[in-house]
Design a protein that fits this description.
about 70 residues; mainly alpha; about 0% strand
Length: about 70
Amino acid sequence: LKVHPAFQRPDVPLKPNPLEAARFFGLGTDAYYNGQFADAEKYLSKAIQNEPRDARLFYFLALSRLAQQK
């Protein structure tokens, strides 16, 4: 249970960067709505690294993983 992907979070940098998070969020949601779920997961993970307190990022990351049956 400890190694389940749902309980793993990406590494978080020391200083959040909301502008980079917003950029990756835009790329991630665009990829998600275009059916490119692997790319969406990659971008949203990078967004979370830059702003780990934004629940929207985790929501879309979960949706993109769900679409890939992960």
